[in-house]
Fold:
Amino acid sequence: MGAEVAQVTQVTQATQAAGVTRRYDDVAPGEAVLPVLPALRDLLPAGGLRRGSVVATGSWSLLCPALVAGASAAGAWCAAVGLPELGVAAAAGAGLVPDRMLLVPDPGPGWPQVVASLLDGCDLVLLRPPDLPPAQARRRLEATVRRSGGVLVVAGDWDGAQTRFTIADQEWTGIGAGHGRLRARRVQVVADGRGSGARARARWLWLPGPDGSVTLAEPAPAARWAPAEGRAAAVGRAAAVGRAAAPGWAAAVGRAAAVGRAAAPGWAAAVGRAAAVGRAPASPDDWLKRSTG
Structure:
């Protein structure tokens, strides 16, 4: 463990001596926020990653490197810890700049100390913890993040994270009826957290798109209309983010949830009963007609 920490410390000291760390004016002009890709800006209250914060992304996916790609392209130094599958070629393919990236595939049992050392020399650290850290170690790392002004992006769960990202729905394209190749993935990303990020935000993204980039996407066809057995789940997702990704009855329920009322008298109760049996009335208007007819 001591040798691993010493090696990382030497690397960070070398980068500091070369004058290549934390070029604040180049990376985030105007305020202490690291830039993100344009497709991700609306998911974050500040339009970027706040320095001194922890971001949790659930399980490992392309969303993790996508979150740090914008800052990397703007001149930030990044480190990836506990991610042996993220090599130089994979990092470059995800939009990171290899010349400003440190890779620590196996940090060993002393990974909290390794991460703390990297935060002293990098703007962002992308971490997949090998195990759940004790509360005391987690608090020490959070204190290091605040002191250093960096951002810790965790591929996993992290109690106390200021921002949490979840992939709520996804659809691969390119596969036909028994033929074809996977070409792109369309996902619905939901972001929430604490403080100014407490209000959930949702966007559909290409992650990746047909050309490998991360861009905004239209809602998946299944999101525009849900079959009877799936409507209750769609209502639940709409209520979770305060809106729905598609027009129609689900959108009405989502807007109603955002303002704290039902789209039609008794509709919320009808949805609740429908969810219990796995179906929902066709629409608020249809329900209203039947209930008053």
Residues 252 and 267 are 10 Å apart (CA to CA).
